[in-house]
Design goal:
The structure is a homotetramer. By secondary structure, chain A is α/β, with parallel strands linked by helices. In chain A, 26% of the residues lie in helices and 26% in strands. The first copy, chain A, has 2 domains: 198 residues, Alpha-Beta Complex (Quinone Oxidoreductase, Chain A, domain 1), CATH 3.90.180.10; 137 residues, Rossmann fold.
Chain lengths: 344, 344, 344, 344
Amino acid sequence: MKAVRVFRYHEAPRIVDVPEPRIVNPHDVIVKIAGAGICRTDLHIIEGGLDEAFHPTLPHTLGHENAGWIEEVGSGVTHLAVGDPVILHPAITCGFCDACRAGNDMHCPTWGFPGVDGLDGGYAEYMRTSARSVVKLAPGTDPASLAPHADAGLTDMHAVKQIVPFTHPGSTVVVIGVGGLGHIAIQLLHALTAARVVAVATRPERAEFARRFGADEVVMTGSDGGYSAVMDLTNGIGADAVLDLVGDGDVPAQAIRMVRKGGAYVIVGYGGKAEIELLYAINRDLKVLGSQIGSYTELVELMELDRQGRIVSESQRFPLDDAVDALDEVRRGRVMGRAILVPG
Amino acid sequence: MKAVRVFRYHEAPRIVDVPEPRIVNPHDVIVKIAGAGICRTDLHIIEGGLDEAFHPTLPHTLGHENAGWIEEVGSGVTHLAVGDPVILHPAITCGFCDACRAGNDMHCPTWGFPGVDGLDGGYAEYMRTSARSVVKLAPGTDPASLAPHADAGLTDMHAVKQIVPFTHPGSTVVVIGVGGLGHIAIQLLHALTAARVVAVATRPERAEFARRFGADEVVMTGSDGGYSAVMDLTNGIGADAVLDLVGDGDVPAQAIRMVRKGGAYVIVGYGGKAEIELLYAINRDLKVLGSQIGSYTELVELMELDRQGRIVSESQRFPLDDAVDALDEVRRGRVMGRAILVPG
Amino acid sequence: MKAVRVFRYHEAPRIVDVPEPRIVNPHDVIVKIAGAGICRTDLHIIEGGLDEAFHPTLPHTLGHENAGWIEEVGSGVTHLAVGDPVILHPAITCGFCDACRAGNDMHCPTWGFPGVDGLDGGYAEYMRTSARSVVKLAPGTDPASLAPHADAGLTDMHAVKQIVPFTHPGSTVVVIGVGGLGHIAIQLLHALTAARVVAVATRPERAEFARRFGADEVVMTGSDGGYSAVMDLTNGIGADAVLDLVGDGDVPAQAIRMVRKGGAYVIVGYGGKAEIELLYAINRDLKVLGSQIGSYTELVELMELDRQGRIVSESQRFPLDDAVDALDEVRRGRVMGRAILVPG
Amino acid sequence: MKAVRVFRYHEAPRIVDVPEPRIVNPHDVIVKIAGAGICRTDLHIIEGGLDEAFHPTLPHTLGHENAGWIEEVGSGVTHLAVGDPVILHPAITCGFCDACRAGNDMHCPTWGFPGVDGLDGGYAEYMRTSARSVVKLAPGTDPASLAPHADAGLTDMHAVKQIVPFTHPGSTVVVIGVGGLGHIAIQLLHALTAARVVAVATRPERAEFARRFGADEVVMTGSDGGYSAVMDLTNGIGADAVLDLVGDGDVPAQAIRMVRKGGAYVIVGYGGKAEIELLYAINRDLKVLGSQIGSYTELVELMELDRQGRIVSESQRFPLDDAVDALDEVRRGRVMGRAILVPG
């Protein structure tokens, strides 16, 4: 089958022929890929930026936002049937450790992360994962368009869940970055909180995009990253939470200044650093919350919101054969919403 | 009356004669000081280190850890009587804003902070505060020895309350810094959680001090700030929470590395900076929690624990007249536990 | 001034002339009433049904859902000005007890409850209350139409806040009773949770009323109180929470059967009893949550949702002079939404 | 092998010879029983009292508090080895449903409950369960003495976890019933909260037993179930939470009256009913919390507390052959602490 694989860092991945995956363990599942989302993390992987964190063996197949249909199941799997439409949680977890048993499966110390840590991902025709990673979709669902929710939407969900305790009617939440993650985050904040949502955008078309998905207010980045506009909107008090989907350059420092006393700066975008003066953190009772990918349960909940029509996602499809070009479009910021690779 | 006042930064404060405070508003209260704790923040104030955060007008009287007896009450105060032994919450809050009404009085936007922000504090014979700042003690209590709880103990309480949600039976909490705050923090962690408490000490006598107040394990700072010892004690997973009472030099960076995935780094000590790589914060689901002074309710709870004998504090008394020498002893780290100034 | 007062239980209240209230304490406030909501509790009071719980001295003026304008303030009140439009929290609380300081002012052991416990309420031209009970409205607001939120809406808010932890995307909440409280509860559930809201109605026009305010599903009471319809809608699992706004007859027993394992039965309506078999409560991990009126903070939040246009309330105005007739209309269930008495 | 089986309700169970259990599914585990605790639920089962709730097929082997050593594992189990000392969570859960994935495995809709619902329990030499039900103990642990924790201790743990949010320093928790569950509950309350623990005992030797395990106060049942003594101890306010381990006769009504405004009545004992007047529940903001058996994670935490020596349990061993006599001793209330059956 065809697969898009990284052979060397700083080089474009190549589309090559590889053997189809096979069932090895009783809980293994083979999924026929309907769509695989392109994530900025894929660009970081190609540039070697995740090598230190995950030490993947090269070459490996990219793709950690996957959806499709059950193709084959291991002997121990009874609740999934061939042909079921499914979306795949990006991690493979053990099911027996304390973290897995408490529902915090993302803290499983022996987790696998196909498409990132060296296990083969979903930029391919078929992919192997575990039954524990499979979320069944409603019969008749088109899985391809949901693929980006496996990571982008799920990351938003986990971040928004952390924001919920900082909100009440009258609260303000700022979302910095209006793209693939941002437009979903705005909708999730409305679904799960009563907060007013203020989006910070860099360009007029992004501002329009944010409004289309429900931002109550949109402010432009300007010279201070939107700081003064946010302070004006909050009577000088600051926002209850600031969700940073950019995480680079001056953004973290600007974002932290926007947070009200006792409020939260929530990190999802990455690349840069946050430098925190401890006296400031204490006087402001500041909370800085790194936010990983979400749990299996959070993916189930996200799919439920999608099924109810409470969140709508924007995406653009590319044939799997055009993966290299599609990655380039994403790198140049030319895709509004999310790019999805669709096998032949 | 006598009062210890800061006249210029970088100069020792002076003991001078000032008029006694008088009732101005219906909710005002005059307290006869029994004892006033010396805090490292006093040293920071003298060095001008809090000028940017609080802009106090000089000269002003130091002292934000105060306890004593009610001397006089305003016309609107009916629940306090002359002679009642009391401890004073360090802040004066309005009682009507959203923060005050929700019990988060420390986020009151118009709060006053006697001894710190230019209002006169308790290094004196008498002090004015608000009825809202007064916690009544049990009849017959000696207020002087409790004074340090007004800030040191209360700061511990607020920090430990934030740690509670990160703990369960089997958890490990690390306390970095074994002094006036540390020995109370260890006891509060035992009172409020089922976690194992590991103290990080710099010197053998501090290690012994930590053990005396209940540390389950003590590790020495060594060359890595105790990092490898903590990792050994936690099977390489890291601590559920790390309480940093030092907050300077290499400590913040070392402390953050000790935190397990999804765990918390809680900031109480200050002076330095924490530099956080955002990719690390995300991959580790890291929470960084700045922790201010506690609320009025937390001070009530702390006094209840003291009354029940669940926390014991170590302190050393100095006459108010020796305030300058006493401040110097604290600066040199020669006081084990907490120093208390006692008027003539 | 005119006031509607209860002289004897089981007799209609009478409209009589009484002296205008005057400032007594520094924190007292006199409010010119714009509107006073009629509550079923008023009917219970007239029938003597709250005598055992509150022991009011007769005669007293009814009215615990009040809004108007500041007429006069005591010497200790600086944050309110004559003419400010305001809504009044129904309780008068002390501000110094542990409950008040923690934001749970409704648990204040010395609270007063004008219109219920013998203190004079707002079925009058003027009313005295405490500055602590006053929530300022945005300039230019018409207070009269908001009056029912002081109790009806606030009770919904407190109940919905208790329901929040039982919900997640995919949850179902059942609201039994579609009237003055019900139509607000439906909107609050949508504002604060991602749950599907199922209303149980007794008549087609009530069903239509529920749909108008956003019920996702409406089921009719039928012979089983809606039990089988709710079980069908939840695949036989039951609802995550059932909010009982009726609280009488067979309703509590039917409501409890609708609750899923680990879910909550939330009591707001009253008059009847719930009989709980302990073995059933254990096997079902059942939570039964009595829900009082809300806190001051919850009333502030409710007014914020109103200001943002997220909740809309249905009401019908009656002149204060027609209070007796209006009470009768409410008793007969002829008022859709909430009845409001408006002084001359 | 020998097994103690119920053949007909209202008849003593019989010790009979049955085939040893065998591995059927890949996740099955066979455990050699070291000890099986006797629970009052066994008496209820024999009397048919759980027939309606669980519909077991007769005959079946009793025993839902089991500990022992791994004897054999299925093909899909890699984290358990023959000879490992283990304690068994009483339920068998699926691992794939929403409840299992969220860590609320006790709400798994397809759970099995060996020893209760017709599946064979641990009053035998060997027992079959699932790998998901197995908690590994530290090497060298004697499993027999821990057996009662599988249900009695675990039920306490789940109940105490529900009590935690109702407590703070200064709180009072009442424990009604000082026996097998009570003496563990007292210790868990001290391990997990800062509350004062008041035990209600029926007899002097039970009072002494409660004090031995750490009750801060003990009151005798007397004519009012301890009501007036509890009110005296709490200045007439009532307890923050009342844990009812009896659940029969007048106890529920007496217990509810002891609960302070906003406090919780937590149900663990059963047999009787609680009749709740809704007006009372509302005015008191009363929470009634049915409390099932705990989750897998809670059993892991309980074993950790045992390993650390923070809880000590009292038990008495009986040979498996004497099961009928031992059940009778328990019925007569002659066993202080918990009875454990040990195979020959």
